[in-house]
């Protein structure tokens, strides 16, 4: 075995040397040929380049693919950054959309206030609802206008559609509005077109009942309810709502004002109305003495006194 291995090495070693010498000689010839400055040699070189270079695309394929992958990665990175930026802008747009919707609703309510037709003799001031103190026992709201704005107790307040309540308590910068649904509210009203005079009595429900109706047969659900101006508490002709009938058959007032969204209230300056100094002044006592009847005599303080012992 050792002899065979030695004989093979003796055969391949000269062959390797010969191959190395041939390759060296070939490269030297190519180098010298490439250095020759001759038009004919230049044409030969150009033909060789035109023949070999187009067929070497396969050798550049890995490099080309690597460069493409790198460019795609950079493109994906740029797309990711743009996507994150678009997400941030979308969140900002959502916030702006919500603000725009709120401003649109506020603008719509203010337009509703401007579209309400009132007696030309009436002036008004618009206030913003600050708080809602609604409870099972009291229905009222607080607005941001008060005595500095000339607000007087008893003045009517409206939203963009109908009557909301009356002023019952005035501070320097704020006023309290008793709603029509409050149990202390008693509003003289007229049902149209029958012309019957009724009283809208608050009971802390969304639809206060209609009391003191003389002829219910002339009243139909959907009839219009407006103020009469009786007692000089409210100006006449203000819209209250429409007649409705509950499941028990009792007639109630479906209020025109939107009590679920009270944001702005219009306070009507009724300078011809009687000024109310106290909220209780709007509710007269049950039994009033006759103005023409003589006043009852006061008991004599000395009538029951014991006679002095004399």
Walk me through this protein's architecture:
With 310 residues, the chain is α+β, with helices and mostly antiparallel strands. Among the domains are: 11-49; 123-282, Rod shape-determining protein MreC, domain 1 (Thrombin, subunit H). The chain has helices spanning 2-35, 39-52, 57-115, and strands at residues 123-132, 140-143, 156-158, 163-170, 175-179, 186-192, 196-201, 210-211, 224-227, 239-245, 251-255, 264-269. Strands 1-2-5-4-3-12 form a 6-stranded antiparallel β-barrel. Strands 8-7-6-9-10-11 form a 6-stranded antiparallel sheet, with no helix packed on it. Residues 282-310 have low confidence and may be disordered.
What's the topology here?
Blueprint (H helix, E strand, L loop, with lengths): L1 H34 L3 H14 L4 H59 L7 E10 L7 E4 L12 E3 L4 E8 L4 E5 L6 E7 L3 E6 L8 E2 L12 E4 L11 E7 L5 E5 L8 E6 L41
Antiparallel strand pairs: 1-2, 1-12, 2-5, 3-4, 3-12, 4-5, 6-7, 6-9, 7-8, 9-10, 10-11
